[in-house]
Amino acid sequence: MKLETVRGEILSLCKDQHGCRYLQKKLEERSPENVQLIFLETCQHVVELMTDPFGNYLCQKLLEFSNDEQRTVLINNAAPEMVKIALNSHGTRALQKMIEFISTPEQVSTIIRALTHQVVELIQDLNGNHVIQKCLNRLSADDAQFIFTAVGNSCVAVGTHRHGCCVLQRCIDHASGAQKAQLIAQITEHAFHLVQDPFGNYVLQYIVDLQESCFTDPLCYTFQGQIPQLSKQKFSSNVIEKCLRGADPSVTRVLIEEMLNLNELEKMLRDSYANYVVQTAMDYADPNTKTLLVEAIRPILPAVRQTPHGRRIQSKIMALDGQGRFSGSGTPNDRSSGQVPLTSQMTTTHQNHSPSVNGYSQSMNNQFATPFSGSYPQYPTGQSHPMANGSNFAQYGTELPQQSSYGRLPQVNGNFF
Q1: How many whole angstroms separate alpha carbon 280 and alpha carbon 287?
Q2: DSSP state, residue 333
Q3: Has residue 279 been placed in a domain?
Q4: Is residue 241, in this structure, part of any structural domain at all?
Q5: According to DSSP H, which parts of 79-154 are helical?
Q6: Measured between alpha carbons, how far is 306 from 190 in angstroms, rounded to an integer?
Q7: Has residue 295 been placed in a domain?
Q8: Is the pTM above the cut of 0.70?
Q9: How far is CA 236 from CA 109, 213, 276, 337, in A?
Q10: H-helix or E-strand spanning residue 303
Q11: pLDDT tens per residue across span 360-390
Q12: CA of 396: how far to CAs of 162, 306, 389, 411, in Å?
C-alpha cells in the first residue's frame, strides 16, 4: 500500500498497533516525501502521540529520520508540555529519543527552558529521572548547568530520594572541575543529614571513592566530634568506615583519636555496627595510632571477650602481637585500593594459608598477613606454635584457644569474600 492512499488518516493510524508499524516501515524507507507527509499530519499532535502507547514509537522513529528543520518544529510543539511528557511512562521514552537527536543550539535552548524549573520534581519521579539522566549524557557540562544548580540547591531532597541519590552521583560524574567542586561543597555542607539516610549515605561514599583528598578530607572533618555516635548507626557506620579507608593518614588519625575514650570505645566494641568501625580503624591506622588504639582496647577485652564482636577484636590483636607489628616497622594498608591485593595464591580459602594450631587459625583479617604456601604440623594442646612470639602470648595465656569464630570475613575494596 502506498502512503498516499492513507493521506488524511495518518494520525489515527499512529494510535493503532498495525498502523503504527506500517508508518514506521515507511519512515525506514528513508524517502523524504514519506517523512514529510507523516510529519505534516502529526507535528501538531506531537504531545498526544508521544504519550500514546503506540504513537510514542512512531514519534521516536520520526525524530530519527526527520531533518533539523522538522525536528525543531517537533521540539517546539512539545516544549509547553515537556514535563508532562517526561512524567508519562510512554512519553519518557519518546522524550529521551528527542533529547538524543538534538543537533542545534536552538533545540538545546528549547529543551533547557522547558525543563529548568522542575528539575527536582523530574529527578524524584520514576520516569522523569531518566529524562534528566539523558540530558546529562547528551548535553555539554555548560548546557547542563541548570541541572547542577537545581540539585545543588536541593541536595538533601535529591540525595535522600531513591532515584535522586543515583542522579546526584551522575551529576558528580558529568560536572566539570569547577562545577564538581561547587556541587560537592554543597553536599558536604549537608553531609551530617545525608550520612544517616538510607540513600544519602551512598552519595557520600561515592565522593570518598573519588580518591581526591580535596573532597574527602573536608567531608571527614564534617563528622569530627560525632564519630562514636555515627559509628553506632547502620547507614552512617558504612560512611565512617569508608572515610577511614580513603582519607589521608593525618585525617584518619583525627577520626581514630575520638575512639580512644574508654567509655565510648567499650560501647563501640559492644555495638553491632561500631565494632566494624573499630576493626577498620585497626587496619588502616598508621603504626603509632594503631598502637594507641590497641593499648586502649586491651583493658576492655575481658569485659567484651565473650561477645562475638569481642572475640573478633581479640583474634585481630593476637595476630598483630604474634607478628610483632608494634615495633614501629609496620605500615598501614594501601589507601589507594583498600586492602592489600590478594595474590592468586591467596584467592582460595584462607584456612589454606593460615598457620593452624589445634584447630585454631590465626586471623588473616589484619593487613600485614602474607601468603603462606606450606602448612604447619599440628601441635599437641599446651605447646606453643613455632611462629608465635611466646613472650607476647604469655600476657594472655600460653596456649592458643581450641576453637575460634572467624566472625566477619576480611574486606577487599569494601566487599566481603
Answers
A1: 14
A2: P
A3: yes
A4: yes
A5: 82-87, 91-100, 105-115, 119-123, 128-138, 145-153
A6: 39
A7: yes
A8: yes
A9: 41, 20, 12, 21
A10: helix 301-304
A11: 333 333 333 333 344 334 434 444 343 333 3
A12: 49, 15, 12, 27
Task: Read off the pLDDT of residues 124-175 as tens digits, 9 standing for 90 and up.
Answer: 999 999 999 999 999 999 999 999 999 999 999 999 999 999 999 999 999 9
Whether residue 216 is predicted with pLDDT greater than 50 in this model: the reply is yes
- C-alpha dihedral, 66 to 68 to 69 to 72, nearest 10°: 100
**pLDDT digit string, tens, across residues 267-277:** 999 999 999 99
- 306-332 burial code (b ≥16 CB/10 A, e <16): eeebbbbbbbbbbbbbbbebbeeebeb
Number of domains in the chain: 2
Domain that holds residue 47: 1-60
Instruction: In whole angstroms, give the CA distance from residue 219 to residue 198.
Output: 18
User: Percent of the chain at pLDDT above 70?
Assistant: 77
CA distance 40 to 305: 80
